Amino acid sequence: MKLKVTPTAIHDVLVIEPTVFGDERGWFTESFNAVDFADATGLTVNFVQDNHSFSRQWTLRGLHYQLEKTQGKLVRVVAGSVFDVAVDVRKESPTYGKWVGIELSAQNHKQLWVPPGLAHGFLVLSETAEFLYKTTDYYHPQSEACLVWNDPTVAIAWPLPEGVNPNMNAKDMSGLAWDAAPKF
């Protein structure tokens, strides 16, 4: 199989590991193939938008989701490393209110499938990082919601060194508490 797929504690959030072919010259990997993705995951998705961000160490982006035009995301890192997080905000889900986190890096080539209905964010661990993600719907700022990164109910164990505050924009700093955040 060209892709190794590993379920997480949130059953439909998947770690995707493509086959990497390497030799003394370097390496090659097919980062996405719709047929292989469908065969390995059982999901048929239609990606409509690619996004690429660059961030400095300890930048925290998220936790974002859209209430309309919900987005599934296939995320990966092509330079540096991040701690990537998904939070289940689907009321009918058995993992409602739970989170999963995984390190994604240029070295490990791992990708994370975050289905629609989950809040998503990441913390940059390396000096800088470039983060790529494919989405199943277009960005819809009118319906975007943001769950605050440090909500005590969700209690994400961000790997921040003691005494370090994350670098965040105003929107993310003023994210909503779990009890106030809209859910699906």
What's the total number of strands?
A: 13
Question: Can you list the strand order of the major beta sheet?
Answer: 1-2-10-7-12-5
State the helical fraction: under 10%
Low-pLDDT stretches? none
Question: What sequence of helices (H) and strands (E) makes up the elements?
Answer: EEEEHEEEEEEEEEH
| Intertermini distance | 34 Å
Please compute the radius of gyration using only Cα atoms. 16 Å
Number of helices: 2
What structural class do you assign from the helix and strand content? mainly beta
Largest sheet: 6 strands, antiparallel
* Gross geometry: globular
> How much strand content do the residues show?
35-45%
Return the average pLDDT rounded to an integer.
97
Question: Would you kindly provide a brief summary of this structure?
Answer:
With 184 residues, the chain is mainly β. It has helices at 34-41, 170-173; strands at residues 3-7, 14-18, 20-23, 26-29, 49-56, 60-66, 73-79, 81-88, 99-105, 111-114, 118-124, 128-135, 144-146. The strands form three sheets. The protein has a six-stranded antiparallel β-sheet, covered by helices on one side. It has a five-stranded antiparallel β-sheet with strand order 9-8-11-6-13, with no helix packed on it. It has a two-stranded antiparallel sheet with strand order 3-4.
Protein described:
The structure is a single chain. Helices cover 7% and strands 42% of the residues. The protein has 184 residues and is mainly beta. A six-stranded antiparallel beta sheet has the order 1-2-10-7-12-5, covered by helices on one side. Strands 9-8-11-6-13 form a five-stranded antiparallel beta sheet, with no helix packed on it. A two-stranded antiparallel sheet has the order 3-4. The protein starts with a strand and ends in an 11-residue tail after the last helix. The mean pLDDT is 97.
